Amino acid sequence: MRSRRIHITGASGAGVSRLGRALVNALSIPHHDTDDYFWQPTSPPYQKMREPADRLRLMHEMFLPRTEWALSGSLTGWGDAIIPAFDLVVFLTTPREIRLRRLRAREATRYGAAAVAPGGWRHKETEEFLEWASQYDDVDLASRSLAKHQAWLAALPCPVLRLDGSRPLSELVAEVSHAIASAR
Predict the structure, then answer these.
(1) What is the rounded CA–CA span in Å between residue 102 and residue 95?
(2) Could you give the strand order of the β-sheet that contains 31-33, starting from the edge strand earlier in sequence?
(3) What is the DSSP letter of 94?
(4) What is the C-alpha separation between 181 and 184, in angstroms, rounded?
(5) φ, ψ of residue 144 in degrees (nearest 5)
(6) How many Cβ atoms are within 10 Å of 118's Cβ, its own excluded?
(7) Burial of 90 (0-12, 13-18, 19+ CB in 10 A)
(8) CB neighbours of 129 closer than 8 A, spacing ≥ 6?
(9) Most buried one in 7, 48, 102, 157, CB count within 10 A?
(10) Does residue 130 contact residue 116 with C-beta atoms inside 8 Å?
(11) Please, how many CA atoms are within 13 Å of residue 159, restricted to the half-sphere of its CB?
């Protein structure tokens, strides 16, 4: 049996997790997100990082040995040990304005519109997060940036499918489905 191990990555708000979740139904494969391994469970979420060795150990325990999965998110700088498992990497690019609109809506859904609005308990953190995300295309950030992703993608030993994350989800799913059927 051929494996179908797909990694989907791109800027925050590009549609990476959305595409990963859509592949669950289209390809009948499980979906995992790097945030679930990168961050320790906290309330509110995304407050405390796991050590890189713990992230990789958890990923190995949960899904890496399986022949089929989709992994969304970014693992640049800490997850290079799992690169050989990839059959296909999908890189989504989405215009900044769309990404920021999606992120603002996601934060409002996650925490409540009043919480992220001016004066809300989550407003400052939301604005700081959106400022960080807005710099993806222009600045070579220590964490996630276009320059860092481009360099990482250039060194991959597997096919890389570059897609516009602003296109309809059904079209993206169809392209990924076709590409994974052709890979390896």
Answers:
(1) 11
(2) 31-33, 68-72, 4-10, 88-93, 160-164
(3) -
(4) 8
(5) -95, 125
(6) 7
(7) buried
(8) 103, 107
(9) 7
(10) no
(11) 16
Using a CB cutoff of 8 Å and minimum separation of 24, what contacts does 43-49 make?
A: 44/111, 44/122, 45/110
Global pTM? 0.94
Strand partners, 31: 70
Alpha-carbon gap, residue 172 to 184, rounded angstroms: 20
d(CA 11, CA 137): 9
Q: pLDDT (tens digit, 9 = 90+) per residue, 71-122?
A: 999 998 899 999 999 999 999 999 999 999 999 999 999 999 999 999 999 9
**Token digits of residue 65:** 């040995």
Q: Which amino acid does the sequence have at 155?
A: A
Contact of 28 with 92, CB cutoff 8 Å: no
Strand partners, 7: 71, 89
Identify whether the C-beta of residue 51 lies closer than 8 Å to the C-beta of residue 132. no
Burial 50-77 (b: 16+ CB within 10 A, else e): bebeebbebbeeebbeeebbbbbbbbbe
- Residues making up the chain, counted from first to last: 184
